[in-house]
Amino acid sequence: PGLDFGSSSSGTTQRGTQARAHCGTEPVKCAMFGHARSKFQSSSPSPNNPGFLQKNNNVDEKGRIVGPFTEQPSPKNLLTRDNERGSRFRHTETDFSNLYARDLLPAKNGEEPTIQFLLEVVDILTNYVRKTFDRSTKVLDFHHPHQLLEGMEGFNLELSDQPESLEQILVDCRDTLKYGVRTGHPRFFNQLSTGLDIIGLAGEWLTSTANTNMFTYEIAPVFVLMEQLTLKKMREIVGWPNGEGDGIFSPGGAISNMYSVMVARYKHYPEVKTKGMTAAPRLVLFTSEHSKITWKPQKFSHHYSIKKASAVLGFGTENLILLKTDERGRVIPADLEAKVIDAKQKGCVPLFVNATAGSTVYGAFDPINEIADICEKYNMWLHVDGAWGGGLLMSRKHRHKLNGVERANSVTWNPHKMMGVPLQCSAILVREKGLLQGCNSMCAGYLFQPDKQYDVTYDTGDKAIQCGRHVDIFKFWLMWKAKGTSGFEKHIDRCLELSEYLYNKIKNREGYEMVFQGQPQHTNVCFWYIPPSLRDMPDREEKRQRLHKVAPKIKAMMMECGTTMVGYQPQGDKVNFFRMVISNPAATRSDIDFLIDEIERLGQDL
Amino acid sequence: PGLDFGSSSSGTTQRGTQARAHCGTEPVKCAMFGHARSKFQSSSPSPNNPGFLQKNNNVDEKGRIVGPFTEQPSPKNLLTRDNERGSRFRHTETDFSNLYARDLLPAKNGEEPTIQFLLEVVDILTNYVRKTFDRSTKVLDFHHPHQLLEGMEGFNLELSDQPESLEQILVDCRDTLKYGVRTGHPRFFNQLSTGLDIIGLAGEWLTSTANTNMFTYEIAPVFVLMEQLTLKKMREIVGWPNGEGDGIFSPGGAISNMYSVMVARYKHYPEVKTKGMTAAPRLVLFTSEHSKITWKPQKFSHHYSIKKASAVLGFGTENLILLKTDERGRVIPADLEAKVIDAKQKGCVPLFVNATAGSTVYGAFDPINEIADICEKYNMWLHVDGAWGGGLLMSRKHRHKLNGVERANSVTWNPHKMMGVPLQCSAILVREKGLLQGCNSMCAGYLFQPDKQYDVTYDTGDKAIQCGRHVDIFKFWLMWKAKGTSGFEKHIDRCLELSEYLYNKIKNREGYEMVFQGQPQHTNVCFWYIPPSLRDMPDREEKRQRLHKVAPKIKAMMMECGTTMVGYQPQGDKVNFFRMVISNPAATRSDIDFLIDEIERLGQDL
């Protein structure tokens, strides 16, 4: 079952004969918003009633000038047009419509088409890079899932039995970028990871060309050493003597945090590895109540990762105890101590405390030193989740916000967030050597393996929960080489200055209300925009309910319009507010001004 | 602590004034082996006594011709030489020695240097691609860790406070590739993942340029839909009706297998999510005893992943029960049933059975249908680990080896192995919808989130244990488009034919002994090479001990010589043997012949 190679003929170029007019690069006017808003409240879109956006598209289709992604009717012209726009490649007259994957290397005589094909791809990519930094380009060209699934102007996502020509593959590459989101655009503020670092990009291209994995020194000698040296440098910056300790790069902050809980468990109850959780007493974990953020999938919520870890690792989410925070979102140490004492009285064993350095929504830094005192007093593992805030360690001006981090037993630090490294790049650092291996190695005899010709202590395979492990280090190493520690420092200081600019701009501005008072600790600026129609309303439930809908509506219009992107969410009993974050080195004050103008333009009539 | 921006001046070009002579592309003669072997038995290398290899290098340094990576004394010439070797780029006269990362986009006037820099990188990469497929190039240029750490010919791995010039960055890129391993080389057979697929490579370059993550439709609309469609297609091929079910791409087979255990636990004991493992009875898991492979980090050992999962998830490794296998490495179903009954009698609850489709060493396929019968009888979750063997589902000729896979509750299938997709690309497929989400979602209210403007069921964030998730789908989707299902089928059939060629060539050849009898089920061919000096020895412990050392010695010489790479390991009471695997589309019969010749050349005097 499942395999039936029939007469499918989807392998031919599917759009060659269609003339297409796409969205251009002119500033988006959004003249359709009057109409659009009237549809906005309607039910979710359906194929027959795509609503808001479909209208948007229709209007656009008439008004848009021929843009950079427009293709000419004849397939032969699809690829030559880039030449005219300043490509630096010596394009040959290669006709990709008669070439297929099977004609590329390792095929005989495959070298020439291989290089030509890769150069065409690079031409598409460098054009994309150029436009990413061009403010007259939209951040995204939004379409609903059903629209993309139906095949936008011939962009067919379905897989088939027969091959497509390389020409079609190149068109597929263009379309993939066209309908995606420019996460490096100076006005993309939606995630903690933004920006498109050119050195990091080059590093990723090289990494994928090397196509190896981090399992052993044998197959990744250079990358394994780079990882070792970089982790040591990070531990030095954390403040551990001589950078001693251990660590590994993992597939993201959630997994890094999971490692920290695993290692803590192994340190205190090593028998759990062989006998399971039933061999331990009832263990409890602690983290900030900012974990309780109502789940919004447009946000990365790293606090959630501790909750996920407690479920995955067999602790149970009920054994994760949430800690009260102050008005700024920082854990109250006295609450931790009270809850530790309470847990012990109930017969539980407090094992692990997560202190967040840079919370997802507020950007709050928990007071690490006070928490460390309590951890020492009650013999608990202290983990610092610096996925978002760890980057501030690179700044002499801001690293004091993590004071005490050197007392942590483990630290999560995601260079792919505040430091602008391409996704994915997340480190888990562990102060005590040997625990990662003890926890994850499946064979004690490993260390004494005598028959390899090199020093096998460089192999990382048995430190990881993975077998194969992606090379996440090279881009980061290369960026560090290219910028120096000082370059990262400048980037971080600049982002924090920008967020201060935003904060100062709106803190007393009419129509804005800050979610918490005082200057933010990180680049997170949380605020409500209050449309004129709500400003004079009494502060009651009706106003709350209407305000709750404002940010989602503005965000939706931003996306339809494609001009900018910023996240929102509720928090506790606070209704939906915007959470602005800045990690993009391309953003300037003018982009901050633009964002505020755009919010006001889109929100004034709500 | 940790940050001290002193007077470090490592930011300048470090090698401009050194003349360097590197390893060329001529066939390696290995004339030094007579000498080398005498050093081979000596203790592990030290900075003062690097042994074998250091000698090797010295000899080479005199004999090598000027090779492609050789740089000229003057820094200005470092980059212009590629021009002479047929680069297709219109290089400008850009002098990268005075340019830094800060001069690239988003810097003002950064577009020109950005494009020039990226084109230089691409020039380095396309040259690397070319050489990867060139059999006159070495597979690797081996150096010991301490040698690379000391800085090979100026290749300085240390990070510094001040930035390096872009020229130095480009040199760093070259050196990184130079001292790495060409995993796409036609004679690289060391891993289950080999080869360098050009379409997949292009896909990875695009993926890193798009630099987004799979968390939500909002920030990865195209990739999210591609993942959805591709997973559905894979489920159809597995044989689930209409491709129904669920799934996700995860960071490798070990994590995919971990998902399967988690989902099984959630299905049978959902309360473990909130209350922890103590809420469940003593649960046991079953997998093949081929898990017991003596741990060799040069191998991917996916069976280990079930053991790792049992430790990570809190079951405890002692609650993983290993199943006996037949002589070919296939689980004996009767042994499973006996052990299930035994476990129940001891008060344990049998939860989960892993059937391996393509074991790491023998390439064995467990009899899924017989195992499925037992799973149904005792109400156990059936997982099929097809990380290595799943690709055979794409072949009408070979898919019968996975007969019964459609009865599995979950399936791991790594396109980055047998299907040649670049690392990482691993899917976990689950037959029952909703379990992945139920298991990993941290908020039940999620499904009813009303305020996004699109259909949020496309968001994948709460199915995953990760928050951010790398885009692993695009390269695979693009390869499928470019090859069609039929292209994957051809690739798989060809690899199996090649391994049959190898098997037929050595099964009766003097000096070879097969580790198991009969034609292998997968491309794994396991054999001993018996040097002439051992052939007439009686079959006693002394012969065993000497034979145990043969494969490691030959492998070490192969690596020093750089001509080819193949793995070895012991298994149970069998001493070290070679495990040949073929997944590389570039490999031909001549490469198989070369491997055999090389083993005999290097091993004849052992």
TrEMBL record, chains A, B:
Keywords: Decarboxylase, Lyase, Neurotransmitter biosynthesis, Phosphoprotein, Pyridoxal phosphate
Ranges of Polar residues composition bias in the record: 39-57
InterPro entries, per the entry: PyrdxlP-dep_de-COase, PyrdxlP-dep_Trfase, PyrdxlP-dep_Trfase_major, Pyridoxal-P_BS
KW Lyase (keyword) present: yes
GO cellular component, one term: cytoplasm
Catalytic activity: L-glutamate + H(+) = 4-aminobutanoate + CO2
UniProt biased composition (Low complexity): 1-18
Protein name (record): Glutamate decarboxylase 1
